[in-house]
Design a protein that fits this description.
Largest sheet: 5 strands, antiparallel
Shape: globular
Order of helices and strands: HEEEEEEEEE
Structural class: mainly beta
Oligomer: single chain
Strand order of the largest sheet: 1-2-9-4-7
Radius of gyration: 14 Å
CATH class: Mainly Beta
CATH superfamily: Jelly Rolls
Strand content: over 45%
Length: 120
């Protein structure tokens, strides 16, 4: 069994295009299909991401702990927990620890890859 050593993800994930995200302390690597996106997030203890809404989102926590408010309900999620956010439902999150999550977005254009990659 692999033990987490604090590195964001294995090289095969880190070699994916990194997303363009304006929030300090949050990185993500993008796996793209024609209809959906998967983002492997590495989130530092950045505090709170403000309420927002978008396409449906399903995610699973690999490491760390986060508090997620979906609509009116707030719950703490830890390693192995998963969540589902329906399309258009307002949600926010608080990150008191470093967190690694994988999110699947039900849209092909939720995030864009950073510009300037040499392999594009």
């Amino acid at each position: 069994m692999h033990q987490w050593d604090g590195t964001p993800y294995p090289e095969m994930i880190r070699n994916l295009p990194e997303i363009d995200i304006p929030l300090e302390g949050i990185r993500g690597w993008l796996f793209q299909s024609r209809e959906k996106q998967i983002v492997f997030f590495d989130i530092q203890p950045v505090g709170t991401v403000p309420p927002h809404s978008h396409c449906s989102q399903w995610g699973v926590v690999f490491e760390g702990e986060m508090s997620l408010t979906i609509g009116e309900k707030t719950k703490t999620y830890r390693k192995g927990d998963w969540y589902f956010i329906p399309e258009g439902v307002e949600h926010s999150a608080t990150f008191p620890t470093r967190v690694q999550v994988m999110d699947v977005f039900d849209a092909p254009d939720r995030y864009s890859a950073k510009k300037g990659r040499t392999d594009e």
